[in-house]
Each structure stands twice: as C-alpha cells, then as structure tokens.
Write a structure and sequence with these properties.
Strand content: 25-35%
CATH superfamily of the largest domain: Periplasmic binding protein-like II
Helix content: 40-55%
Structural class: alpha/beta
Largest sheet: 7 strands, mixed
Length: 290
C-alpha cells in the first residue's frame, strides 16, 4: 500500500476538504482526488463522504484510521532506522505538555537536542493531559509531560501537584486555610475546559461532587480574571498559577488533593529511534533513564 496515498487521506480529513489538502501538500485538487480514489479502489470501499461543505471519513474509513496511522508510524520508524544504519540521524517527533510552566524547559531541550541532531525535526503539540495521552496511544505523539492517565504508555513520575481553589480576596471564605470539595456545589463555579476531561472533572466525578457551574472558559488566565471580578470561584492545578495576585486567594482543599505529574512515552515496541533519543536526552534533567 502506498503510504503517500494514506498521508493524503489523513490530510484531507484533517483539513476538511480536498482543496485545502491540495494547498497544504502542494498538490493540485485533481491530484488529491485521484490519490484518494486510487486508495479507495485499493481497499475496496469509499473512504470519504464528499459534499459542498467538504469531506468527512466514512464509517468504514474510521475503522481503518488506527491501522492507517500505524502504517505511517511504521514507515517513519523504518526511515529513521535506515538513517541510523547509514550513520544519519533523521526523523520527525512530536512532543508536548499540558502545563505552560514546562514550556521553557521543553523548548530548551528542543534547542539543545536539534543542535546535536540537526536532521531530526521536533513539533510541539498543545493539549490537555487526557488529550495528549490519547494522542500518545494513537501514535500521534512521542513524548509529553502530563498528569497521570490510565492507558498504554510508559510512565515516569516527576512530582505531585496540588489542586487548589482560587477565590476573590473579599470572599467570606478567603481567610480560611482550606475549603471542602462541597464548597464548589454551592459557590458559583467557573469551569475551565467545559465538558472535557480535566484533572478537575476527574476529581469531581471521583468524589461525587456536582459543581455549581455558572461560567465557563477555555483559558486559565480568563478564569482567574473572572474570579478577580467576583463572578465566582475556580479549581486549578498549582502548576497553572503563574503569579499570586493581591486580589486573589489560593486555598488548599480539605482533605488536600494531588495529581501526579510525569513524563509519558510510547510503549517500548512503538517508540521511534528519534523519539527514543529525545526522551533519553530530556530525561537526564530528572536523573531518569528510559
């Protein structure tokens, strides 16, 4: 099977249209269409549903996508291994973290790593811990710093991070040392990343808490601004607090709640040579080995 056709298919799905895929890959639209049609002929069933609004994968295509993705991953791993045998260090890896405080360290690793291995390109991926963990399992990510998730990956713990409440300074509970989780059932709650799995949502679900959500945002700083304005309270990882403000109060939970932060890697048989080199390079900072 021609992996370039598979790559074209993924690009068309990601871009949502054959025209956009053509622009991204520097193909002609007709060339993209012929490539997809050829792949459809090879597998024996339609892969894309076409409409005026663009393209989406068929049900049969969705069943094939994990295998197609594994095919591309194997091709990349093969290419990197061939490069190693020839004495060349080549390849592309994708790395990410769910916590902005690790970005300077991550970028420092990338800078030093690419000096040593100029033939390996590194792409940074953004996302939440659950999202990055899923990408890692599907072979779309090679290295990430996240909070611990269940799944098929290798886990190397770094630290325990506390989940804390953030309140306006003038809130009646601001002088307490801590607040119970039930606090969020009655106070106006500002949800970060609504309807998505986060450390907060996992904790609430585990403890049977139904938070009194009044506002929602997809940005930590926006949530803190809303708390500052007196709209409500929120719950965050300590790592997400860039600075303490006089107008805000940060309180522990009672009992205290922690999440484990660490490095997640693909299982040994799935990691590419380039990703293995990057992981070994980065993990030296934590006195860890793969």
């Amino acid at each position: 099977m021609d992996t370039e056709k598979v790559r074209v298919l993924f690009t068309a799905i990601e871009e949502g249209s054959l025209t956009a895929a053509a622009e991204k890959l520097d193909y002609t639209p007709s060339g993209i269409s012929r490539s997809v049609a050829s792949l459809e002929e090879e597998v024996g069933f339609p892969l894309l549903l076409r409409s005026r609004n663009g393209v989406i994968p068929t049900k049969d295509c969705n069943e094939m996508l994990p295998t197609f993705r594994e095919l591309l991953k194997c091709e990349e791993k093969c290419r990197q291994l061939c490069g190693e045998i020839r004495g060349l260090e080549t390849g592309e890896i994708a790395v990410g973290t769910a916590y902005f405080k690790y970005y300077p360290q991550l970028c420092g690793w990338i800078s030093e790593f690419t000096k040593n291995y100029p033939g390996i390109s590194v792409r940074i991926v953004e996302g939440r811990s659950s999202e990055l963990s899923e990408m890692l399992e599907k072979g779309r990510l090679d290295f990430c710093i996240i909070s611990k998730r269940e799944g098929l990956c290798r886990w190397f713990p770094i630290k325990q991070d506390e989940l804390v409440a953030r309140l306006p300074k003038n809130h009646p509970a601001a002088k307490r040392k801590s607040v119970p989780l039930t606090f969020f059932e009655t106070e106006p709650y500002i949800e970060i990343y609504p309807r998505q799995e986060t450390d907060n949502s996992r904790l609430f679900e585990k403890m049977g808490i139904r938070q009194n959500t009044r506002y929602a945002t997809y940005n930590d700083d926006a949530a803190f601004a809303m708390v500052e304005a007196g709209l409500g309270v929120t719950l965050v990882n300590s790592l997400q607090i860039s600075e303490e403000k006089e107008s805000l109060v940060t309180l522990s939970l009672q009992p205290k709640q922690w999440v484990e932060i660490g490095i997640a890697l693909p299982v040994a048989e799935a990691i590419s040579p380039a990703a293995k080199k990057f992981a070994a390079f980065a993990m030296k900072d934590f006195n860890m080995k793969i």
